[in-house]
């Protein structure tokens, strides 16, 4: 349940964090909280909205070129397209100065690949529906690779140990808890879920693992429930995905829990190979495993035609996990 006050407060918070140019290109669905709040933000700033009915590669690029869009909100699948697709080189995107990605974490590798190719600043923001949605935002002039930005104004953060429940220090990974005027009222007609997510003092338990550094930048590692547990270690799928995606033959990737002969969890990579390219399991394991700690090594690889994702670009990891758990 989000109140008018929640939505209004978060629109003001996001408008303070990012001043758009004369035009905003809107390709994300308005029914998603990310785009819903941006709609209000753009109205507050008097920004003209160029609305695309869906993400079409050529229409998206030609609109950026035609309307000279200075700043664009995107999601990771669009970021992947901008980083690797040869079609991008056919358009003049020199007017675009910054891209802002939300809805799912983006690794340093993808962020740096976009900046190198397009000469733009690649920024990240973080939030969730329960926070209306924004909580962190990368401000102009204060962007760090892999960071989802600093706290937007009037927002508090606790980083809490999932096992013992105490607050953690800088650079220690724990569950992110947020509180602010954008905090939800609760879940509609679900008191049990509300009590499990909203603390008595008003903090929302996000279920996301992350940490904050000495510069107050917040890094989102992965979902608490999606961590892969291998021989006592916890492995974030997003970290492995960022490395694998940097391989020139990889079009898309998602990492999930695989199971060995003893039915113990192991890191498993689900990979979509670029059209016209070839790739073997051994090649991708050699590429990835030379870049990670021994316990993070990929142990299983499967090749797919596509990775299931939501309308906002999040990997539907549970759906993908269920697909292989049934086998």
UniProtKB/TrEMBL annotation:
Keyword Ligase: yes
Domain (AMP-binding enzyme C-terminal) ranges: 239-314
Any one GO molecular-function label of the UniProt entry: CoA-ligase activity
Keywords: Ligase
Keyword flag Electron transport: no
Pfam families, sorted: AMP-binding (PF00501), AMP-binding_C (PF13193)
InterPro entries referenced in this protein's UniProt entry, alphabetically: AMP-bd_C, AMP-bd_C_sf, AMP-dep_synth/lig_dom
Segments forming domain AMP-dependent synthetase/ligase: 4-188
Family designation: Belongs to the ATP-dependent AMP-binding enzyme family.
Protein name as annotated: 4-coumarate-CoA ligase
């Amino acid at each position: 349940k989000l109140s008018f006050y929640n939505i209004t407060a978060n629109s003001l918070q996001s408008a303070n964090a990012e001043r758009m140019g004369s035009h905003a290109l809107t390709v994300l669905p308005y029914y998603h909280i990310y785009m819903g709040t941006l709609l209000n933000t753009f109205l507050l700033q008097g920004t003209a909205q160029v609305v695309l009915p869906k993400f079409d590669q050529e229409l998206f690029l030609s609109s950026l070129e035609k309307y000279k869009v200075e700043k664009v909100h995107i999601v990771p699948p669009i970021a992947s397209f901008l980083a690797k697709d040869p079609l991008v080189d056919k358009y003049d995107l020199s007017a675009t100065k910054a891209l802002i990605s939300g809805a799912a974490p983006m690794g340093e590798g993808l962020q740096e690949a976009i900046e190198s190719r397009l000469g733009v600043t690649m920024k990240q923001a973080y939030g969730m529906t329960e926070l209306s949605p924004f909580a962190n935002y990368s401000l102009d002039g204060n962007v760090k690779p892999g960071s989802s930005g600093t706290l937007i104004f009037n927002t508090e953060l606790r980083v809490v140990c999932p096992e013992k429940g105490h607050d953690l220090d800088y650079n220690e990974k724990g569950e992110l808890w947020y509180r602010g005027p954008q905090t939800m009222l609760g879940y509609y007609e679900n008191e049990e879920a509300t009590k499990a997510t909203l603390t008595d003092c008003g903090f929302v338990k996000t279920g996301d693992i992350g940490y904050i550094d000495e510069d107050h930048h917040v890094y989102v590692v992965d979902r608490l429930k999606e961590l892969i547990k291998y021989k006592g270690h916890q492995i974030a799928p997003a970290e492995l995905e960022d490395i694998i995606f940097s391989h020139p033959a990889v079009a898309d990737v998602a990492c999930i829990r695989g199971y060995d002969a003893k039915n113990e969890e192991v890191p498993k990579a689900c990979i979509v190979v670029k059209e016209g390219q070839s790739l073997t399991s051994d090649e991708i394991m050699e590429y990835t495993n030379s870049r990670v700690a021994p316990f993070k090594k990929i142990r299983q690889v499967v090749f797919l035609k596509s990775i299931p994702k939501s309308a906002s670009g999040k990997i539907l990891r549970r759906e993908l996990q269920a697909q292989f758990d049934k086998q």
